[in-house]
Specification:
heterodimer; A: about 500 residues; alpha+beta; 6-stranded antiparallel β-barrel; 5-stranded mixed β-sheet; 19 strands; about 30% helix; B: about 220 residues; alpha/beta; 8-stranded mixed β-sheet
């Protein structure tokens, strides 16, 4: 006789943790995706499902707020169903949640009792499920609101009334789903419960004798990365973000290879050094990951001899078989650039390897911005997508202006090198508010032989630091081509860049 | 650029090798020349890697000269060692069509290493250097580019290949060429509208025996 426990948890948070809080995990243990006492994991249905795993082997997530547990045969372990129910309600109730539980014969009936019954903990003896189910309202059958509205329009409020109606007429009048749910609740139709499996964190580690020697650490890293990529291979996944942790024994406490503290033998907490890096495309190549880790290791100072190295996958993606890449030159070139970008970013930082993005902006130094080549932290993906869309629109507009016959229509000629910040120079103009006549540069006065301009650049007055500048492209007598501007508010001249 | 190509051996800048561009100061034409060469190199695909050590690269200017933003990969470094390593890595990558970097005071051993990396990657290495740094180098081609003084005698009587009178702006001196003798110094007009260089007519080319070198 099947027995189902339904737990209704209305107070769950909406954010789903995408990956575990890795720093709290110890090496040697298989990490679970959430811990009961882990304060960082939000109280979500998934975390509650993991917690409920101690009561039953099969935990099914129903909707966004209910767990259905198949407790057939588990009653003995808890010394009876009543005890099981109370323990379950207490376990969740401890975390200041509202919990309603019900045990009965079918999942549908259990759900209905948990949601709609007056008491918060209901235990229905075997075989009497129907008697307890019939007084409940119709919406407890897990049907949609429209059907509920239709039923109440014809005066059917309780399941009892529904049972009295001829079953054959229910389908054509109210839909097949109603019939299905009713039969499932009454036990006439079986309902399958799919167990919830928490996502496993891909993780590999290697423990070795504490050592300072670089070649030993390199070999350990190499082996760990191989195991890691093997696991990725079996799961057909590629990794985008990797976290690497070294556990080191603090140097000052080491005596003869064993960590002690003075005379008392006390285990010293190992120091952990963690770094992470991202790749521009999903990969499971041991060579690439090994090379990136080696690059990071060059700049890393370990506080003591290392004894454990762990490699975690922070963000993975499905990666199909990449063998066909060998025959596709375009993709191979793209892969080469991605390779280069990964290597450069690993050593210099993701902010140092950038691509420019033109912005529709009049102030020259703000007319572009740099965007990291790698997409970067994938946790912030939703907001990044939003900002990318916003800046994408502006950039697209700016780029459209640029791409029309190759010149920026909105602006005049732009120099190739920009001096930031602009350098104040002494310029003599023949006419006040006129073009520059001579400039004092490199310690001597140089005559300006040719001048184009002015190009007036003004930004909106509503900006805190709005600019009003007149730009001139000036060629000195020695042939150097400069970009000068005069501030209209103060009349001072500045050198902003060089052409050519 | 047909004018420049005509004076170089093999009709162009060598791919898979380093070309050094020397100048005395910014604004002397070296960046413009470098970007034009990079633009030619990237026509067949790939990216242009710019190693920006002085933090004064201005993308809108490069875009105006014809490089697309998708073709630009900017690497910003703070230390000379990082810049050298970045240039080395970028040269090795076969998908990078051209590398532009300002690397002053490059020792011979390092220059040799960059030359080998360029051969591995097959792209164009354009190293900008100050003109005071006249050490023997491993570069395939070494060019010094200076702006032409407006009142110099070089400016007179020049016509371009179409026969129109020309007002040159930059003087390119080929200091070293790996194979063959360096050609005579010639003036070039990095003209933004027509975007072509121009050789002086042969008579003027011969009359300029010694280029007006600037002494810093």
């Amino acid at each position: 006789m099947k027995r189902i426990l339904a737990l209704y948890l209305p107070d769950l948070s909406d954010d789903r943790p995408r990956h575990p809080h890795v720093a709290s995990l110890e090496p040697g243990t298989e990490p679970r995706s959430c811990d009961a006492g882990d304060a960082h994991a939000g109280r979500t249905l998934e975390s509650s499902a993991v917690q409920a795993g101690r009561f039953a082997p099969i935990v099914h997530l129903e909707g966004s707020d209910t767990l259905l547990l198949d407790i057939t045969g588990c009653q003995r372990l808890f010394k009876g169903e009543a005890n099981l129910l109370h323990q379950a309600v207490d376990a969740f109730g401890h975390q200041a949640q509202t919990v309603r539980g019900a045990i009965t014969d079918t999942p549908g009936a259990a759900w209905a009792l948990a949601h709609a019954h007056a008491e918060s903990a209901v235990l229905v003896p075997p075989g009497q499920g129907t008697a307890w189910l019939t007084p409940l309202p119709v919406w407890a059958l897990r049907i949609d609101e429209q059907t509920v509205a239709t039923l109440s329009a014809v005066g059917v409020e309780k399941i009892e009334t529904l049972c009295h109606l001829p079953r054959g007429s229910l389908g054509p009048r109210f839909g097949d789903e109603l019939v299905q749910r009713l039969e499932q609740a009454l036990g006439e139709r079986p309902e399958l419960l799919t167990p919830y499996r928490p996502p496993t964190v891909l993780h590999s580690y290697l423990r070795f004798a504490p050592t300072d020697r670089r070649e030993v650490i390199d070999e350990a890293v190499r082996r760990t990365v191989e195991m890691f990529c093997d696991r990725l291979d079996r799961a057909a996944l590629g990794v985008r973000q990797v976290l690497v942790t070294f556990h080191c024994t603090p140097r000052c406490h080491c005596t003869g290879g064993q960590a002690t503290s003075g005379t008392r033998r006390e285990p010293i907490a190992a120091d952990r050094v963690t770094f992470e890096f991202a790749t521009s495309r999903a990969t499971r190549s041991a060579d690439r990951l090994g090379a990136l880790i080696a690059t990071k290791l060059n700049d890393l100072r370990l506080p003591g001899p290392a004894e454990v190295v762990q490699v975690w996958a922070r963000h993975t993606e499905k990666l199909d078989d990449w063998q066909d890449e060998l025959f596709d030159t375009d993709r191979r070139d793209g892969a080469d650039v991605a390779d280069l970008v990964d290597r450069l970013s690993a050593r210099l930082g993701a902010d140092s390897v950038v691509r420019p993005q033109l912005l529709s902006e009049h102030q020259p130094e703000l007319a572009y911005r740099y965007v990291p080549f790698i997409d970067g932290d994938t946790d912030r993906k939703p907001s990044k997508r939003r900002s990318a869309k916003r800046s994408g629109a502006a950039a697209y507009k700016a780029e459209r202006e640029v791409s029309r016959d190759g010149t920026i229509l909105a602006a005049g000629e732009r120099p190739l090198q920009l001096r930031s910040p602009p350098l104040e120079v002494r310029v003599v103009a023949l006419v006040p508010e006129g073009p520059p006549g001579s400039i004092h540069l490199d310690g001597r006065a140089q005559r300006i032989v040719q001048c184009c301009g002015p190009e007036r650049v003004e930004t909106g007055w509503w900006r805190a630091d709005h600019v009003r500048r007149d730009y001139y492209r000036a060629t000195t007598e020695s042939g150097v081509c400069l970009w000068l501007f005069r501030r209209r508010d103060s009349g001072r001249w500045f050198l902003h860049g060089w052409f050519h | 650029m047909p004018a420049l190509d005509a004076s170089l051996p093999h009709g162009g800048l060598p791919a898979g090798a380093i070309t050094e561009l020397l100048s005395h100061q910014p604004g002397s034409g070296v960046m413009s020349l470098a970007i034009r060469c990079a633009r030619q190199a990237v026509r067949t695909g790939g990216v242009v890697a710019v190693v920006d050590t002085r933090n004064n690269f201005y993308p809108p200017g490069a875009v105006q000269l014809g490089l697309a933003v998708e073709q630009l990969l900017i690497i910003r470094t703070r230390r000379p060692a990082e810049a050298f390593w970045a240039v080395d890595q970028a040269l090795r990558c076969s998908a990078v069509a051209a590398v532009l970097a300002y690397l002053p005071h490059l020792e011979q051993a390092r220059a040799r290493r960059l030359q080998l990396s360029a051969e591995t990657g097959g792209g164009l290495g354009l190293l900008l250097q100050p003109a005071t740094d006249l050490r023997p180098s491993f570069a395939g081609i070494r060019m010094q580019i200076e702006p032409v003084a407006a009142d110099g005698s070089v400016a007179e009587g020049l016509i371009d290949h179409a026969g129109r009178p020309l007002r040159p702006q930059h003087l390119i001196t080929l200091l070293t060429v790996r194979e063959g003798m360096p050609a005579e110094p010639f003036v070039i007009c990095l003209n933004d509208e027509t975007d072509s260089g121009a050789l002086p007519s042969r008579s003027v080319g011969r009359s300029t025996e010694a280029p007006p070198r600037r002494i810093a």
